[in-house]
C-alpha cells in the first residue's frame, strides 16, 4: 500500500501540487514581484514620512513660514555681509547695515507709494465720481435703458444685502484683525530669525549637522552648503523677475500717460513676490486707474499689457530664467508651483520652487558622491552660470 502511494506521488504532474505545497516553495514568488514589493513598501514609508512632515509644517505654519522667509532673506544678505567684512568692516556693523538697509529700502518703496497715492487721492476721487456719472449715463442711453431710479434701486439692494450679512462682515473683520496680529508676530519673528542667521548661521547649521550619525556628517554638510547656494540663486532670480514685471507694466502705464504710474510699478514689484494674488491685485489696480483717468479704451489696452507681461513672466521668464538658475526643468517649476498651492496654499506656491530646487541639488550631491571630492561646494559648483 505504501509503495502505491509513492508511485502515485511520483507520477503526479508538477502543476497538480496543492495550494499549500505550492505556497511553501521558495520559488513561488517571481523575482519581479519581489522587487516590486520591496519598492512598494519603501515607497509607502517615504510617502508616510513626507505626509507627517507636511502635517507638522502645516500645524506649525506660524513658526515655519517666518523661519523660511528669514532663510530666504539671509541667503540674500549673507553675501553682502561677507563683502563688507572683507573690506574691513566690523562684522556687527556689516550685519546692522545689511538688515537695516533692507528694511529702509522696503520702507522707502512703501513710502513712495503712499505719498504718491495721497497726493493724487483728491483727483482720483473726483475722477471716480465723474466716471460713475458717465457710467450711469451710458446705462441710460444703452439698449438696456437703465434709468437712474433703477440703477439706484440696484445699489440699494446691494447695500441691503450687505446689511443682512453684517454678521459675516463682522466675523470677517475679526478674522482680518486676527490675521493682522499674526502678520505682526510673523514680521517680528522674521526680523529676529534673520538677525540670528546673519550672526551665527554657521553655528546653527553645525548644530543641525551634529544631529546626524558621524559617518553621514560630511555628506550632510556638503549637501546643505550646495542647497544654501541654490536658495541664494533663487532669491536673486526672483528679484530680477519681479523687477522685469514691474518695469514692463510701468512702461505700459507711462506710454498710456496714466497717473500714478510709478506707484503702480512699485506695487507690481512688491506684489510679484506673492504668487497669483499679488499679480492679480496689482494688475486690477492698474486697470482701474486707467479706466478712471483715461477711459475704457486705455483701460482695455492697459489690461492687455498687464496680461501680456504676466503671461510672459509666468510662462516664459520665470520657468526659463529660474529653471536655469536653480537647475530645475521648467515643467518641474510649473508642477512644483501647482503642487505647492494644493498642499500649502499661498505660502506653498511661494516656497515650492526653492524647496524643489534645494532638494534636487542636495539629493544629486549625495547620490553622485560629490561630497567625497568636494566637501565644501561653492556657488560656481552649484550654479555654474551664476
UniProtKB/TrEMBL annotation:
Q: Which domain of life is it from?
A: Bacteria
Q: Where are the transmembrane segments?
A: 39-58, 64-85, 92-114, 176-199, 239-258, 264-293, 300-321, 333-357
Query: What broad class describes the main subcellular location of this protein?
Result: membrane
> What is its subcellular localisation?
Cell membrane
Membrane disposition? Multi-pass membrane protein
The record's keywords, sorted A to Z, are: Cell membrane, Membrane, Transmembrane, Transmembrane helix, Transport
Identify the InterPro entries for this entry.
Answer: AI-2E-like (IPR002549)
Q: Which family does it belong to?
A: Belongs to the autoinducer-2 exporter (AI-2E) (TC 2.A.86) family.
PANTHER family the record matches? PERMEASE PERM-RELATED, TRANSMEMBRANE PROTEIN
What is the protein's given name? AI-2E family transporter
Native species:
Naasia aerilata
Amino acid at each position: 500500500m505504501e509503495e502505491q502511494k509513492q508511485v502515485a506521488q511520483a507520477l503526479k504532474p508538477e502543476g497538480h501540487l496543492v495550494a499549500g505545497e505550492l505556497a511553501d516553495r521558495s520559488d513561488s514568488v517571481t523575482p519581479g514581484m519581489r522587487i516590486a514589493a520591496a519598492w512598494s513598501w519603501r515607497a509607502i514609508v517615504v510617502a508616510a514620512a513626507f505626509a507627517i512632515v507636511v502635517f507638522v509644517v502645516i500645524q506649525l505654519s506660524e513658526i515655519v513660514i517666518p523661519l523660511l522667509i528669514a532663510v530666504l532673506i539671509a541667503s540674500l544678505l549673507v553675501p553682502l555681509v561677507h563683502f563688507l567684512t572683507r573690506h574691513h568692516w566690523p562684522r556687527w556693523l556689516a550685519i546692522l547695515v545689511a538688515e537695516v538697509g533692507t528694511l529702509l529700502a522696503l520702507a522707502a518703496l512703501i513710502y513712495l507709494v503712499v505719498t504718491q497715492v495721497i497726493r493724487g487721492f483728491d483727483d482720483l476721487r473726483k475722477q471716480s465720481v465723474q466716471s460713475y456719472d458717465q457710467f450711469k449715463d451710458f446705462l441710460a442711453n444703452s439698449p438696456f435703458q437703465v434709468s437712474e431710479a433703477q440703477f439706484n434701486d440696484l445699489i440699494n439692494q446691494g447695500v441691503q444685502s450687505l446689511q443682512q450679512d453684517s454678521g459675516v462682515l463682522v466675523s470677517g473683520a475679526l478674522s482680518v484683525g486676527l490675521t493682522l496680529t499674526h502678520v505682526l508676530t510673523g514680521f517680528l519673528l522674521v526680523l529676529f530669525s534673520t538677525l540670528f542667521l546673519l550672526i551665527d548661521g554657521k553655528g546653527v547649521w553645525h548644530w543641525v549637522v551634529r544631529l546626524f550619525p558621524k559617518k553621514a556628517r560630511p555628506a550632510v554638510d556638503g549637501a546643505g552648503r550646495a542647497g544654501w547656494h541654490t536658495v541664494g540663486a533663487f532669491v536673486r532670480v526672483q528679484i530680477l523677475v519681479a523687477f522685469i514685471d514691474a518695469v514692463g507694466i510701468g512702461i505700459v502705464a507711462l506710454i498710456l500717460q496714466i497717473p500714478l504710474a510709478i506707484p503702480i510699478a512699485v506695487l507690481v514689484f512688491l506684489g510679484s513676490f506673492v504668487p497669483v494674488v499679488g499679480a492679480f491685485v496689482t494688475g486690477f489696480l492698474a486697470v482701474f486707474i486707467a479706466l478712471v483717468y483715461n477711459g475704457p479704451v486705455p483701460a482695455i489696452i492697459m489690461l492687455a499689457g498687464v496680461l501680456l507681461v504676466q503671461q510672459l513672466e509666468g510662462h516664459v521668464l520665470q520657468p526659463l530664467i529660474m529653471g536655469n538658475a536653480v537647475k530645475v526643468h521648467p515643467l518641474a517649476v510649473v508642477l512644483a508651483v501647482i503642487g505647492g498651492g494644493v498642499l500649502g496654499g499661498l505660502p506653498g506656491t511661494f516656497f515650492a520652487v526653492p524647496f524643489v530646487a534645494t532638494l534636487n541639488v542636495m539629493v544629486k550631491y549625495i547620490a553622485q558622491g560629490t561630497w567625497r571630492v568636494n566637501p565644501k561646494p561653492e556657488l560656481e559648483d552649484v550654479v555654474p552660470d551664476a
